[in-house]
Amino acid sequence: MDAVRLIVTSRRALATGGGVPDLLTEVWQAQALAQAIGSRLALVGPPQLRGEATGLADLADHGIGVLDRTPLDSGEPRAARLTELGDTRACLMHLGGLLGDVGIALVGIACAADDEATYWSCVEAIDAADEARDRVRDMLRKLADREAAPPRREAV
């Protein structure tokens, strides 16, 4: 499935998530999708984005790890359905929005947390999502810079 379609599906699921367990599952799904997209961009994306894409995958993996939660009874991760990235710019723009939504959901969960362990894991996951979003912004800037640069002329 196309990355943008998966991201839109994740954003909808996150927006309609019910209680804390459902929201944490959707945050996990979104982080797994960000990791998969980052890994794919690191392998086959534009060369100038590959370093940032590796960083994105690592940050998303950290966000998954600090939550220490796998989706309950949700089958395979949504990210497993990723078959193509499509337009890199559109993919990154939507992914940035998803990561912003993840941060907002985690703030809500952290504020309502009854125990310190949940609170601090949410804080760490917020940091990871925020840093991952920064990576996405950096990649979008690099794409814009590349498009704005005048084409090179070969010597005659």
Mind describing the biggest β-sheet? none
* Contiguous uncertain segments of 5+ residues: none
Oligomer: single chain
The SSE order reads: HHHHH
Indicate the radius of gyration in whole angstroms. 17 Å
The general outline is: elongated
Count of distinct strands: 0
End-to-end CA span = 45 Å
Helix content: over 70%
Secondary-structure class? mainly alpha
Mean pLDDT: 90
Walk me through the structure.
By secondary structure, the protein is mainly alpha-helical. The chain contains five helices and no strands. The chain has helices at residues 3-16, 20-44, 50-67, 88-112, 116-148. α2 (20-44) packs antiparallel against α4. The radius of gyration is 17 Å and the shape is elongated. The model has no long low-confidence stretch (mean pLDDT 90).
Report a brief summary of the structure.
The chain is an all-alpha fold. Helices cover 74% and strands 0% of the residues.
Outline the secondary-structure elements.
Blueprint: H1 3-16, H2 20-44, H3 50-67, H4 88-112, H5 116-148
Features:
5 helices, single chain
